[in-house]
Amino acid sequence: MAPFSVMTASVSLLAKSLSVLSCTSSLARCTSVLPAAYVIPVKCLTSQATGPPKRPLNGYMRYVQQQKPVITRQNPEIKSVDIIREIAQQWRMMSPEQKQPFEEASLRARVQFKLDLQNYQAQLTPAQVQQQALDKKHRMAKRKAIRKKRELTNLGKPKRPRSPFNIFMSEHFEDARGTTTQAKMKSLLEDWRNLFSHQKQVYTQLAEDDKIRYKNEMKSWEDHMVEIGREDVIRERTLSKKKTATESQATKKETKKSTAHSKTTRKATKSSPSKTIRTAKKT
């Protein structure tokens, strides 16, 4: 009886595995036959817990998302910049009725986003809320720094001086060992460390010359910024130096004025007794 029961159990287990395999293969065949629009993607259950919901796309970005694969298939050799430019031109030429489906879809997504965001924030602990506030502060500071750097570049701010290793790397980067940028930089760092002191001295002198270049260019640039009324982009130490120089000049002027006034007072006091004696003699 025992061998027969074991055999029955093994046969039933084999039948179940075959049925599962057949169902999986049939599901795969059905999925391959159905179009991509009818295939329902499996949602990740942990996406809501790991991070906040993503902001929905506006109507224009939804149109870009729809048209970009179409234009890419039609023109495989076209650049991404040209694709976006063509899609933007199409969007500008569309009528409000043609844009309406994309705008309505964006509106529905925004409503759903607000509900998902409220549900997500209700599940957060006070520590997580504080951490999110800090992360947002860091992101805003980073964006502000990027915008300021872009503005300074547009205003023509001189490039910072290079270090000796940076000069060495720029000269030998093309001939460096390695296929990737990281591998080349690693090999150049090893070559730099193996250089003798007199070989490094050449690049050290070039770096010193570059510092002088940067100092002269920055002085001219900051003077120009003062002329056009952009003192807000000047370095703090330069402003403090200018302020100190202005205060010293004002102090010198005040000292000269006080000295001149004291000299005038002394002359007046010296001449006043003689005038009194002369008037006394006349009487």
Automatic annotation (TrEMBL):
InterPro entries linked to this entry: HMG_box_dom, HMG_box_dom_sf, HMGB
Sequence intervals crossing the membrane: none
Residues annotated to bind DNA: 53-121, 158-222
Domain HMG box span(s) in chain numbering: 53-121, 158-222
Any one GO molecular-function label of the UniProt entry: DNA binding
Coiled-coil portions: none
Key word Mitochondrion present: yes
Any one of the GO CC terms: mitochondrial nucleoid
Record has Transit peptide as a keyword: yes
Residues making up the signal peptide according to the UniProt record: 1-19
Main subcellular location: mitochondrion
Gene Ontology biological process terms in this record: regulation of transcription by RNA polymerase II
Basic residues bias (residue ranges): 258-269
Keywords annotated in UniProt: Activator, DNA-binding, Mitochondrion, Mitochondrion nucleoid, Nucleus, Phosphoprotein, Repeat, Signal, Transcription, Transcription regulation, Transit peptide
UniProt xrefs under SMART domains: HMG
Localization per record: Mitochondrion matrix, Mitochondrion nucleoid
Positions of the UniProt region annotated as Disordered: 237-283
Subunit structure: Monomer; binds DNA as a monomer. Homodimer. Component of the mitochondrial transcription initiation complex, composed at least of TFB2M, TFAM and POLRMT. In this complex TFAM recruits POLRMT to the promoter whereas TFB2M induces structural changes in POLRMT to enable promoter opening and trapping of the DNA non-template strand. Upon metabolic stress, forms a complex composed of FOXO3, SIRT3, TFAM and POLRMT. Interacts with TFB1M and TFB2M. Interacts with CLPX; this enhances DNA-binding.
Protein task: Binds to the mitochondrial light strand promoter and functions in mitochondrial transcription regulation. Component of the mitochondrial transcription initiation complex, composed at least of TFB2M, TFAM and POLRMT that is required for basal transcription of mitochondrial DNA. In this complex, TFAM recruits POLRMT to a specific promoter whereas TFB2M induces structural changes in POLRMT to enable promoter opening and trapping of the DNA non-template strand. Required for accurate and efficient promoter recognition by the mitochondrial RNA polymerase.
Protein name: Transcription factor A, mitochondrial
Upper taxonomic lineage: Eukaryota, Metazoa, Chordata, Craniata, Vertebrata
